[in-house]
Amino acid sequence: MKKKNVRLAALFMAGLVLGGPAYVSPASAQSGPHTLRGSVANEQASALAGAHVRVPRLEQGAIANNNGLYVLAGLPADTVTVYVSFVGYGSVSRLVDLRQGDAAEDFVLVATVETLFEVTVEEDEADRALLLSPQSVIRLEAADLAVVRGQTLGQTLDRLPGVTTLSTGPSIQKPVIRGLHSDRVIVVNDGVQQEGQQWGAEHAPEIDPFAPARIEVVKGAAGLEYGAGAIGGVVRVEDHPLPQEPGVGGRVMLNTFSDNRQGAGSIQVEGGSRAVPGLGARLQVSARRAGAAHTPDYVLGNTGFFERAAKFALGYSRGPLELEGHVSRFATELGIYRGSHFNTFAGLDTVLALGRPPVNYEFSYEIDAPKQDIVHDLSAARLRYNLGDGARAEVQYGYQRNRRQEFDADRLGGRDPLARAAFDLTLSTHTLDVKLQTAPRAFLGGNAFSHVGLSGMNQGNSSNIGYLIPNFRAYTGGAFARTKWLSGAFTLDAGARLDVRRMRAFPRERGNSGAFERIEQRWWGLSGAIGGIVQLADTRSLAVNVSAAWRPPGVNELYSYGVHHGTAQFELGNRDIEPERSLGVDFTIRQRSERLQFDGSLFATRIHNYIHLVPTGGPIVTVRGVFPGFQYDQTDAVLAGFDGSASVEIYRGLATDVVFSVIRGDDVTRDEPLLQMPADRVGASLAYTLPDVGALRGTEFDAGVRFVRRQDRYPTRVNEDGVSVPLDYVAPPDGYSMFRFGVQGELVLGSQSVRYGVSVENLLDTDYRDYLSRYRYFAHDTGRNIVVRIQVPFGTRRDED
Amino acid sequence: MTKKNLRLIRAVTFAAILGVTLSACDSNEPDGDGAGEEEVITLVTLTLTPQGGGAAMDVDAVFDEAGVLQSVETIMLTAGTTYDVSVDLLNTLETPAESITEEIRDEEPHAHQFFYTAEGAVSDNIAITNLDTDPNGDQLGLTFDIAVTGGAGESGQFRLKLRHYEDDADLPEDKRNDTASASEVPGIVENDVNFTFPVSIS
Known about the structure:
The complex is a heterodimer of chains A (about 800) and B (about 200).
Chain A: H1 3-19, E1 34-42, E2 52-55, E3 60-63, E4 69-75, E5 79-85, E6 92-97, E7 103-104, E8 107-109, H2 126-130, E9 136-140, H3 142-148, H4 153-157, E10 163-167, E11 173-177, E12 185-189, E13 192-193, E14 214-219, H5 223-226, E15 233-238, E16 247-257, E17 262-272, E18 279-290, E19 305-318, E20 321-335, H6 345-354, E21 371-388, E22 391-407, E23 423-437, E24 441-443, E25 446-465, E26 471-487, E27 490-506, E28 519-537, E29 540-551, H7 555-559, E30 561-564, E31 569-572, E32 580-592, E33 596-622, E34 625-651, E35 654-667, E36 672-673, E37 681-689, E38 696-708, E39 716-718, E40 724-726, E41 736-749, E42 752-761, E43 785-795
Parallel strand pairs in A: 1-7, 1-8, 12-15, 31-34
Antiparallel strand pairs in A: 1-4, 2-3, 2-5, 5-6, 9-14, 10-11, 12-13, 14-15, 16-17, 16-43, 17-18, 18-19, 19-20, 20-21, 21-22, 22-23, 23-25, 24-25, 25-26, 26-27, 27-28, 28-29, 29-32, 30-31, 32-33, 33-34, 34-35, 35-36, 35-37, 37-38, 38-41, 39-40, 41-42, 42-43
Chain B: H1 3-22, E1 43-50, E2 57-63, E3 69-72, E4 75-77, E5 82-91, E6 98-99, H2 100-107, E7 112-120, E8 126-129, E9 143-148, E10 155-165, H3 173-177, E11 189-201
């Protein structure tokens, strides 16, 4: 870390220590005459040392000792609700009457089937948030999603601290976690790692934004859980649990976006069987259709898209056995802005000089060349067997097939570009995961849980048209072991993993009519993590995590050979590339009190052999003219920064929210900043919730602003005239501020409720360009956007969302 | 955990691993002909026939599947001679080789135009005339004449540029007003071909 970063970090930590506790309400000031005491144990009557016993209303709490005993003193002569919770167990709440004096209450907790090791533990408990993970994790529940659901997964996550979006127009947006994206971020779709052509910056994750009921973002390496590749972070997308009780219900969701005149809708129908107890199913069908997007002054020609998705899931549980299977298809056809597609470098030069479209486009829903056609099919089956007291075994198999066709703007000789793709790839992936989780075992005065697993992947790519990416077959296998130890206010989590990957690729030999080569490569890597959480008070915790991860080179980094039409660069793979290996440390402080919720993280990661594109120094002469050459190369990189969010209730119904992200990425070998690091940003919002009036429930108005600094750290090169110029074509754009306003709530008419939201993004129709927008060279970002979201539950289903 | 449970886990694990291994039999090896085929120009041939007799000469420029120049022959001209020239653009990765020039002539002559320019020391001594035309009567350039007026001993470059007028172009006006040095504008006009042959005059 550079000196400047160290200063920033110190400032941040000082802010946490000084500013953080200032909001804490004086919990201990509450003092009454009575005492509550008792024990906490599991069903086997073993003491649960470290269980939390809390009275949230009074902000008082205690932790069960090694014998499972707790004492809560200073309670008032009143009835109080006591919550008891312990990681790995279902929590219990009970009303206790202290009006007659001291009381004694013993609690028995039942082990949950939820795994401890995926980030998911139990939901709806404020204090679980404090113990969520030694790593920085953000979780969006169904209610949060209903409000922020965007037109893409990337847009849905865009407002989270530490998460930004790499966009190629409004339809292609991928999440960037602390400066890393694409192959360095793993997307887990309902338990299965998503395997699309993730290497491309203009390849968005193939996920229906309507499907997730919960999204979790793990910031930082997660190699222990996910093996090779998880250097930057993880986006976990989960569906609603399948219903098990009899009855049929569902929800209808509708979204409109004014900017591209988009209409989108989804219907979910789910039910449990009466005839076969434990059998449940769900069907979801979604579609969205969008026309060309607008900037404040002009239309981005050919940026419409048409997306369809369907998913069917079936589950059965009986006794200790749980079976679940699902099949899904995601298909999209999306237009690429014509002014961003270059067959020659001179064409790029023209548009760079212009900085806006060369043609005055009209709004249209039509999708013309250049465009992408993508179909992603996924099927998965999962078997879980509960062995009692939290121990269980799980086997999961997944099969995915990703077909990506990209149509060039033109074909030689003036033939119809839509009649034949310029490249056409099919990626098929089988995955198999086996996991075993043990029951808690008393160990060193605490409880230890262990987790072991094996995983395997078999992936094949075939290139039906085009030589950009060769055919390949890759096998990956991994094994891991992990232990979590809980005692009192301490949680320790440590594990290690070994993965091996073998790849056989068939690139063409260089040169005209070259034969296909056959190249075998093998890589292996160790991943590991050790982390701990200390609960500093009942409402605050501090977590530290150190993790090591690795990523084998991607097929594009090894073998790509051709012009990238989005950047007019000739990109050359490098067969000598070695895997990237990262080591990162992460401090997280969390506060969950009635008035203040705070999550702040400070992190630093060093990536050895960081793979990136660097200029070859010479132009490449092709039949279409001369292109600048770029080749994949390796260096050592350090990424460090801090991010977090705070939300404070100022007054009854009035709350304010602050989200901030700061990152510094450097190539430490060359001692220069890395390209394309997200600019510093801070967002603030003020929300006011009205008291319920008649049919209007939970009506909330919110106004927000986001300030994004100009990215003033970028690599430069000295050109032939001896002048230092950005390595990129254009220096980063100016900073900007973006305003938004929204209203949301629930309308309850008899037994029917409707959740609605209307928001205006880019309220002032500001002209801006984001540094991570790949269209920024050629066009502005989109203008004012009025978004309407409606969600209507129906049938006999729960309405918690 | 009972023994029965362990046996079950072992059996399921084994079956599943076997399943994945078996499904891996396909090696994904390309089948040699046609795998990944792409529409590219891999060979540009100029055929020069001296007017008034003499053997025709072929001059080739060879490109790989990504369009990168692999080799280029020199156009050898004789001072005082005029040549009938024809150009052929081929994709030799196809069997038989596919002619892009034929495609242009048959499908979209009005949306294409070749420009030829002599550059360097030979620029004053080489005149390019008599380009063939499209059905609108505008220049196309699949055939043309090279007149070498002098400059023996000089050498330079001969640039071949194929301009393609796209969906957003106004035709035939944009084509008529176009010049060899005009800029490229995505969506309106871009170069499908743009490189130089070395040329020397004897």
